[in-house]
Amino acid sequence: MVNRPHNELDPFDAGFDADDDFGLGEQAWQPIEPPPAAAAPDIYDLPSPGLDMPAAPNPVGDMQAGIEASLGTAGVPRIAIHIFTERGETASAAAQAMRDRRMSRATSEILPGGLSAALVHYQNQATPALVVVETTDRGDVLLAQLDQLAEVCDPGTKVMVIGSTNDITLYRELMRRGVSEYLVPPLQPLQLINAITTLYADPSAPFVGRSIAVVGAKGGVGASTLAHNLAYAFAERLLANTVIVDFDLPFGTAGLDFNQDPLQGVANALNQPDRLDPVLLERMMVKCGERLSLFAAPATLDDDYDISAEAFEEVTSKIRTTAPFVVMDLPHLWSSWMRRTLLSADEVIIVAAPDLASLRNAKNLIDLMRQTRVNDGPPRLVINQAGMPGRPEIPIKDFGEALGVQPTLVLPFDPKLFGQAANNGQMIEEINPKSKCAEGINQLASLIGRREAAPMVKKSVLGGLFKKK
Known about the structure:
By secondary structure, this protein is of the alpha/beta class. The protein folds into 2 domains: 80-199, Rossmann fold (3-Layer(aba) Sandwich); 210-454, 3-Layer(aba) Sandwich (Rossmann fold).
């Protein structure tokens, strides 16, 4: 403060075509409206063509949504936070906020008694980096108590007040006295997180892009293929700078899919995270297009890749300063770094096949995220390889109902299209931009990117012959 310096399986019959629909109407990418119990606030600013939007406005949900969209997730730094509450509702909201992934680096403590308790507590205790106090007092009583708190605050301590009145005159007086922020109940978890994040935002800090983690419910369901094509859609259809990071160090396929064989890649970065700067990052990435860069995996068995979770976290945070979208291709394994990377991502996409193993594993992943990502919506579910001839499959609707998360995207089984793209080192859009798979992936990119995809510009094979010298 200023006063001190401070079911039943329903198998598909053989003979389905790749152009057939699988329970989602005329468009294979058409999302199903989630059941009310599993519904989460829609955080997207712009509606995408062909996508259902909420039928009725939800003021609280919209406020939460806007806050979540604005966070981006820069996260709160490693600070200590004490929160003194008077109301049970405020304590519950604060507890939920402190469990949020954006608060994972902070150390927090929630104490009863409000502002009065804080005055007693700090008579013989040092104050942390941030003190949040709730009070129902008004006028001179409130201001007098804040003056007393200022006398016991250590230099550098910030104070946030949760008051009982929405009064602009009081707000201005509190700001004049050095209070960092003033909030009014009812307090929402993301509202508190956003306020704390804003207090510690560094104007000179580099831009932080949005991280999208793509993981398969089991091996072989096409999670890597989706991740690579999604990154391509961000770059080519949303016209946004994008980085694809292949974290499958021994077996990654991003280099093959983009027909690249770089000398350096993500393993080099993970082995020297402290040395990473913008120049070194640029050298380690390979350009796959005007807006798309690749952080390739070594894809060799020459190393055991015994790398700490902290190294993955540091490298990921530095890569996010290079582009608005960072797509992380995550392997099908479980470790401390995998858990941390998956749970800290801004957006999570689970790719599954319509079978029992995928259903079980996807449920385990979704249940974990519901427990740990308490202020985020559920992960997006993508069903791949639907309608494989001769294979018994769980119906798409039943699959989603069992998980409580209906698919955002269903991709039909099309081995010719995907096989040709893989063998040529190309993306689906480059092979057949009018295919349902290409259109569905573009719609998914628009939904996550919150903007409409630009029309595809067809590249002429003769264009290079007529360039001006």
